C-alpha cells in the first residue's frame, strides 16, 4: 500500500475538529503582599504583638464585649475610616478589571462581528485593504470613536452587573448598583451581588503578621479579625495596591479626588488624551520669514519636553490570541458560506452553526421569514400528513380504506449562503489576507483608543463614588466578601460563625449610626442626619425604625417624595405602624395630596385615638379638603 492510499483511507474515518475556541481572559489577581515580613515566616510579626482569632472562633452573639464595646470611640471611628479607604481602592481596581474585560470582549467578539457585517454589506477584499486599512487618519478616528463607545458601553454593563444589552444613561449611574448593595431606598441585602468583585477582599497583608497560616490566603476575613489590631489595619488600608490608571484631570478638583489613591492626570496628559490621534492635533505653525535671523538659513526651535507616558492597564494582545481570534473568524465565515478548502478540511463543511451567526441577527435579517420550504409547518415542502407521512385513500368494495405510505427519504438540505457571491467565491488566499490585515488594523486602533483613554472617564463615575460614600463601609465590605465566605467547600461551622459575627457587627454599628442621627436631628442638622440613617439602613435594612427616623428628617428638609417612599416601605412590612402613617400624611400634605393625607391621619387616630399631633394636623388638612371639588363616583372607583 502506498502512502497516498493510506492517507485516503484515514481521511474516510477522520472526524472534523470542533469549532476553534476564543482566547480566555486572564485577569491579574488582587493579591496583597504581607505588611510585615521579616523573612523567617515563623510566628506573628505584628509590632503590637496582637493575634487574630481563628476562623470560626468568634465570641457568642449574646456577648457584646468583644464587638464595638472593646474599642474606644476614636478607634472605632478610625476603623470605619480605614474600611472606607479599603473599599474605595477595591472599587477603583475593580473598575480597571471591568475595563480589561470590556477590552477583551470588544477584541474577541465585537470587532469580528463588525468585520463580518462589513462583508455582508458588500465590502470586497480589495475595498477592505485599500479603503479601510489604508483609509487614512480621518477614517481611523471614526473607527476609534466607535470602539471607544463600545468599550464604555461594555464597561458600564459590567459595573451594573448586567451582561445583557442595556442602555444605562447618566441619570441612572450607580443607582442600580447602589440598590444592589443596600444603598437604595429599600436597603435590600441580597446574599450575592452579581456586579461586585467576585473574589472577595484579599487580606494576606494582615493575616500572616497576626498569626494566620502563611498559606491561608483568605478573601473573607471576619471583622473581629480586622479589628484585632486597628493600627495595622490603618497601615494596611493606606498601603494597599492602588489603581494603575490615571484619574482624569477634569475630576481633580471634585470630591471624587478626595479618596483617590492613584496618580492624577496632568493637564498636558489630558490634552493629549483629548487629541488622541495625530490628525486631530492642532496643526504646527511654521515660523514666519521675519522670525529668521539675519544671514541665517534656519531658526532654532527649543526641544519640546516629552509628555509623560500613561501607565498601561493591560498590554497589547499577544500574537497567539490574535491568531486564535482570526482562526475563529475564518471558521465563522466558512459557516456563513465562504468556500475555504483548508478550513473545511479542519472543521468539516458548513453547517450554519448558530454560534457563527451570533450578533448578526440584524445584519443578516434572520428574524424575517424567507418563505422557503424549510419554513413550512411540517419541515417539508409538500407533506400535509402527520409526522411527514402522506395519507392515500383507496376505495374498497365495502368501505373507505386508508393506506399509509412510507415517509419519503429526506433530501440533503442545502446550507444557506449568507455572504455576497463575490466574497463567498473569491480566492481564499486573497480573502484571508484582507481579513487578517483589516482585523489587525482594527486591533491596533482598539488598543490605541483604550490606552489613551481612562476607565474612570465613564459618565457615571462621580455618581458611583458618591453612592458608595453614602453606604457604610462595613456594609460594603460584607457585600464584597459574603459570596466568598458562604461558598461551597467552606466548613459549615466557619460559615455560620462568620454570618453570626457579621450580623452582630452590623447591628451594633447600625444602632451607633442611628444614635448619631438622633443627635444631629436634635441639633437641627437634618441633612447630616439623613446620611447617618442611610448608613444605618445599609448595615441593617430590617430595622424599620431607621426608615421612620429618616422619613422625619426628609420631611423636615422638604423631600416629601423620598419620605413617602420610606413610609410605604415600612407599611409594607408593618401595616399598623402609626408613626409611618403620620409621616406619610405629613409628606402627602407637603405634596398637596390632601385627601390621601386625610386618610392616613384617620388611620393614625384609629390606631392611637389620643394622638394630639394627628388631631391638630387632621383639622388643618380638612380645611384644605373642603376647598377641593367634590369627587365623582367614577373618580373614587377609578373608572
From TrEMBL:
Residues 1-62, 267-316, 370-390 are annotated as: Disordered. It comes from the Eukaryota. Keywords: Cytoplasm, Repeat, TPR repeat. SMART domains: TPR. InterPro entries: CiliaryAsmbly_MitoImport (IPR051982), TPR-like_helical_dom_sf (IPR011990), TPR_rpt (IPR019734). It comes from Apiotrichum porosum. GO terms for biological process: protein targeting to mitochondrion. Its main location: cytoplasm. PANTHER family: RNA (RNA) POLYMERASE II ASSOCIATED PROTEIN HOMOLOG (PTHR45984), SPAG1 AXONEMAL DYNEIN ASSEMBLY FACTOR (PTHR45984:SF1). This is Uncharacterized protein. GO terms for cellular component: cytosol; mitochondrion. It is found in: Cytoplasm. GO terms for molecular function: heat shock protein binding.
